[in-house]
Automatic annotation (TrEMBL):
Listed Basic and acidic residues bias regions: 214-237
Region (Disordered): 214-247
Species annotation: Sinocyclocheilus grahami
Organism domain of life: Eukaryota
EC number(s) stated in the UniProt entry for this protein: 2.3.2.27
One GO cellular component, as annotated: cytoplasm
Zinc finger (UBR-type) stretch: 38-110
Role played: E3 ubiquitin-protein ligase which is a component of the N-end rule pathway. Recognizes and binds to proteins bearing specific N-terminal residues that are destabilizing according to the N-end rule, leading to their ubiquitination and subsequent degradation.
Keywords in alphabetical order: Isopeptide bond, Metal-binding, Phosphoprotein, Transferase, Ubl conjugation, Ubl conjugation pathway, Zinc, Zinc-finger
SMART domains assigned: ZnF_UBR1
Gene name of this polypeptide: ubr7
Phylogenetic lineage: Eukaryota, Metazoa, Chordata, Craniata, Vertebrata
The name this protein goes by in its record: Putative E3 ubiquitin-protein ligase UBR7
């Protein structure tokens, strides 16, 4: 259904709106990953991965860092200044414990004083990257994406990673230079399976960009440092690992190959790179000692977490498919004038909602259910004031017809 030629530039079709709404819902579901918006996650213990928030109102900078689950961000911290932390692994909700003084969690009051297994960073005070700046940063005029390290889970500006960010970064995982140096054995893997880059870049804390050329002709390096062909090395390193046995340790063979890696900058890993990690008994101990045993878990990835959220959303949509029929049926029964009225209503609401939400984005605040209710209450108030001027139609009315 489309508007007439004179209306095309000023309006959007209902199909466009519904498709855009569905896309936004899928993105939100991916971020929330099936997190419960009604129940505090504390009883679940240290959740494998969940959406987290920090409350700048209750635990501001200078105090103890604390993280809260999705449900508590809605129920216990409504109207507060929240930092959205995206996801963290193995975290237990802090809401209402000793870090919050006299405040108690409204959803689950019987909590321990401190969650000793939680790990915190400057992210919990709204600061990120090696430059220790907020995001969005009102003082930063350089357009730059933020990328999360899968080990420390901090977020970094692309220009502060010490390397060139490869294309299609959303399909890869990144480990920052600091975490690589804390797990030096990963440099051996990087020499074999890292996503290649042309230059290393190391600007930070206001420094000018400095580029250092590095070798990137990997096949030439293998030829000079190892008499075996790249195909031979690949076959040996990928086919020699045996579960629970050190006789075929893949990491040991990588070290023996003589293939080296410049120990500089963050490392970007290709899709499914975790499956190439050795899982022999010695390597498992190595991962545990370094605190990175999660690297052996393919379901630990943010991609797996997001797919979980998308699958949940798709299942809910499939189960409620019949719920959409009354709306589409009602639209099909309206005449042309009524359809255009609804298109205008959608277009106006879409513009006003974007303007309303932009204020939250500019201040880095989380949008709460109460904020959304307030927006639609304002919309209804405007419609009531316009009611005497003539009849109008809204989708809310149509759903009840």
């Amino acid at each position: 259904m489309a508007a007439n030629d004179g209306e095309e530039d000023a309006t959007v079709s209902l199909v466009d709106v519904l498709e855009e709404d569905e896309e936004l819902e899928n993105e939100a579901s991916a971020v929330l990953g099936g997190s419960d918006s009604e129940k505090c996650s504390y009883p679940e213990g240290y959740v494998k991965r969940q959406a987290l928030y920090a409350c700048n109102t209750c635990t501001p900078k200078g105090g103890e860092p604390a993280g809260i689950c999705l449900a508590c961000s809605y129920k216990c911290h409504e109207g507060h200044d929240l930092f959205e932390l995206y996801t963290k692994r193995n975290f237990r909700c802090d809401c209402g414990n000793d870090k919050f003084g006299e405040m108690e969690c409204k959803l689950f009051a019987d909590k321990e004083n401190v969650n000793t297994g939680n790990k915190y960073s400057h992210n919990f005070f709204g600061l990120y990257c090696t430059c220790d700046r907020p995001y969005p940063d009102p003082e930063d005029e350089v357009p730059d994406e933020m990328i999360q390290c899968i080990v420390c889970e901090d977020w970094f500006h692309g220009r502060h990673l010490g390397c060139v960010v490869p294309d299609c970064v959303e399909l890869q995982e990144m480990i920052c230079q600091s975490c690589m140096n804390k797990t030096p054995f990963l440099w051996n893997y990087a020499a074999h399976i890292e996503v290649p880059s042309i230059t290393k870049v190391s600007p930070c804390k206001g420094e000018e960009d400095v580029k250092v050329e590095v070798e990137n002709d990997e096949e030439e390096k293998i030829k000079n440092e190892n008499p075996k062909s790249p195909a031979d090395v690949k076959e040996e390193t990928e086919g020699s690992s045996e579960e629970g046995s050190c006789s075929g340790c893949r990491l040991r063979e990588m070290k023996a190959s003589g293939r080296s890696q410049t120990l500089q900058g963050a490392v970007f890993w290709p899709s499914a790179w975790r499956t190439k990690l050795c899982t022999c008994a010695d390597c498992k101990i190595l991962y545990a000692d370094a605190g990175v045993s999660f690297l052996m878990d393919e379901m630990d990835t943010v991609l797996a977490y997001e797919n979980k959220g998308k699958s949940t959303e798709q299942a809910e949509q499939a189960g409620g498919a019949e719920g959409r029929d009354p709306l589409m049926s009602a639209l099909n029964n309206l005449n042309r004038v009524q359809q255009l009225e609804i298109i205008h209503e959608y277009n106006d609401m879409k513009t006003e909602l974007k303007d309303y939400l932009q204020r939250f984005a500019a201040e880095g605040k989380v949008v709460t259910p109460e904020d959304i209710r307030h927006f639609f209450e304002q919309q209804q108030s405007r419609k009531r004031r316009r009611a005497n001027a003539g009849q109008y139609y809204c989708t809310c009315c149509l759903l009840h017809e």
